Structures are given as C-alpha cells and as structure tokens.
C-alpha cells in the first residue's frame, strides 16, 4: 500500500472512531441530524486545506453551512456561490454570514502573478484588480509577505461587500430579516481567528462600514 492510499484508509478508520465517540457522548445525535438542517451561520471560506472547519471553532455538524472557494470569493457571476447564499438566506434563514479569509492565501498570491495558472487567473481577476487599486498603500509595506497578508485582508472586506451588495441579502434586509455579515481572517501560523471589525447589519451602513475598515488602522497591521 502506498502512502497515498494509506490516507484513505485512515479517513475511513477515523470516521468510524469519531462516529463511535459521538454516539457515546450524545446518543441520538445522528438521528437528530437526519431530521433537521437548521444552521445559524453561513461560512464563506477559502478551499485551503490548512483552514480547518468545525473542529477549530468547537462546533458540531449541523451548525455551519459552508461555501468554500479558492480565495474565499463570492462573485456575482458565480452560480454555485450565489445558490449557496440564496439557500442559506432564504431557506435556512441563517443569522450570520462569515466571510473568512486567511493569511498567506495561495489564491491571493496567484492573483499577483499574471497568466500562471490559466483559468484560476480568471477566477482571481478581482483580487488582482484589488491589488492595483490599493497599490500605493501596499507598496509602503515592508516586504512581500506583508503585502500578501494585507491583500488577504482587503480581499475579505471586498467579499463582504459583494455579499452585502447581492440582491439576495439586500432583499432579505428589506424584508426585515436579521442578518449580520462578518469579516474574519484566520492565521494559519497561530491557529487563531481574527475579526477585521467590519460587521454589517443592514444596507444603510454597509458601504461606509467596509470603507471605514479598509481605511482604518486595524487593516495592514498584519496578524495583530
Ligand atoms: Co486561500
């Protein structure tokens, strides 16, 4: 058996052990799961394998509805992302939407290199535009790693903007549905989540909240 096969066996074995543990701690858990799907949170995150899911935030299955894409994008032409957003808002009626990026994002790094990965560069076009828009400020930073991390933060805030500008969320707010959209970033090197302090609770202050966060001192203070 090769090492590549071994990981599959390990996954199956771990799954059996995990299931047994959950059954022991909370009998009936899986029967409950099968009957209801009522998560309170939609998580829009990066596909990066180093950004963990439930285990790092102490949550069990059933608590978070996930949408993950390269560089945690929510683009207005992305049927997959918009479908997940619509289902989460209109059917599941989530209370919170968290856009969670991470420092050292490979997608963000790729966006800075032109034509390296074909289609992926199309997907990351918005991130490349963002780096151009904020070039002066990014160039002031000490080194490339700081510039990438700052761009990771800017990218989170721009995706929060996309979520807030989407007709799905705008209409929900207009209906009086309570939804808060949050900008978080995960530090792979420390295992800690950070709040970029740009929580938006409604249409009225959405743009100004995001613009204030972009201009404010919290940003670009990498991994503070
Ligand atoms: Co990433």
Look at the helices and sheets and give the structural class.
Answer: alpha/beta
User: How many domain regions?
Assistant: 2
Radius of gyration: 19 Å
Overall CATH architecture of the largest domain: 3-Layer(aba) Sandwich
Cα-to-Cα separation, first versus last residue: 45 Å
CATH homologous superfamily identity of the largest domain: Carbonic anhydrase
Kindly state the mean pLDDT as a whole number? 92
Small molecules (ligands, ions, cofactors) in the structure: cobalt (II) ion
Give the helix tally. 10
Q: Give, in spatial order, the strands making up the sheet with the most strands.
A: 2-1-3-4-5
Share of residues in helices: 40-55%
Unreliable residue runs: none
- Number of DSSP strand runs: 5
Query: Approximately how much beta-strand content do the residues carry?
Result: 5-15%
Write down the CATH topology of the largest domain. Answer: Beta-carbonic Anhydrase, Chain A
Task: Output the CATH class name of the largest domain.
Answer: Alpha Beta
**N-to-C SSE string, H for helix and E for strand:** HHEEHEHHHHHHEEH
The general outline is: globular
- Sheet having the most strands: 5 strands, mixed
Summarize the structure.
This protein is 48% helix and 14% strand. The protein has 224 residues and is α/β, with parallel strands linked by helices. The mean pLDDT is 92.
């Amino acid at each position: 058996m090769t090492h590549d096969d071994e990981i599959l066996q390990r996954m199956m074995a771990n799954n059996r052990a995990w299931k047994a543990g959950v059954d022991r701690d909370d009998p009936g858990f899986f029967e409950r799961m099968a009957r209801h799907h009522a998560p309170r949170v939609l998580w829009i995150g990066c596909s990066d394998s180093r950004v963990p899911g439930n285990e790092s935030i102490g949550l069990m299955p059933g608590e978070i509805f996930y949408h993950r894409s390269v560089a945690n994008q929510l683009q207005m032409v992305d049927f997959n992302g918009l479908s997940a957003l619509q289902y989460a808002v209109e059917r599941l009626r989530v209370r919170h939407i968290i856009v969670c990026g991470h420092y050292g994002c490979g997608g963000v790094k790729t966006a800075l290199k032109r034509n390296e990965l074909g289609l992926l560069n199309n997907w990351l076009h918005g991130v490349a535009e963002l780096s151009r828009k904020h070039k002066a400020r990014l160039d002031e930073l000490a080194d490339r790693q700081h510039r990438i991390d700052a761009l990771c933060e800017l990218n989170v805030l721009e995706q929060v903007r996309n979520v807030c500008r989407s007709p799905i969320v705008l209409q929900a707010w207009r209906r009086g549905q309570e939804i808060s959209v949050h900008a978080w970033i995960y530090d792979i090197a420390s295992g800690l989540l950070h709040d970029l302090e740009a929580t938006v609770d409604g249409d009225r202050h959405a743009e100004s909240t995001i613009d204030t966060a972009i201009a404010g001192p919290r940003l670009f203070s990498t991994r503070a």
